[in-house]
Amino acid sequence: xxxxxxxxxxxxxxxxxxxxxxxxxxxxxxxxxxxxxxxxxxxxxxxxxxxxxxxxxxxxxxxxxxxxxxxxxxxxxxxxxxxxxxxxxxxxxxxxxxxxxxxxxxxxxxxxxxxxxxxxxxxxxxxxxxxxxxxxxxxxxxxxxxxxxxxxxxxxxxxxxxxxxxxxxxxxxxxxxxxxxxxxxxxxxx
Length: 190
Prior knowledge:
This protein has 190 residues and is an all-alpha fold.
């Protein structure tokens, strides 16, 4: 818990340029893997998916992250095909606020509705990855950011479990509130 302010500051300090690793110098997979880790908005939304999945429990734990990764792949493919989506960056920011809020408030919609909401946001995250890919190889870049995304979802679940063991469900939900608060800070800084 004492490291939360420092970790939060590091996430907020990450500039959009930090989300980009040169594919020519480091390889397409590494560039893809680094992309969601280098942007606070992407990383926070993916952590929130894992937290909310944990709060919902049961089948939501594998389903919400799977829905996110699947729809994110679809968004990536849309971008690579030249299909534009409106308001990509605002939708990504909204995902941080709303997914963090869902975890914080322990919202419990039907599982299909929760998965559809997560997938809708993931479409925009994937589109951003596809639009910002640069000269990387599409397959390797996709594999890299899909793996990093799954790892961030797992970190959200694991972190939420650890917090729940330390202080009950309220502490895990508090982490969701923290994600939403950091999203609000990103919006204000924006």
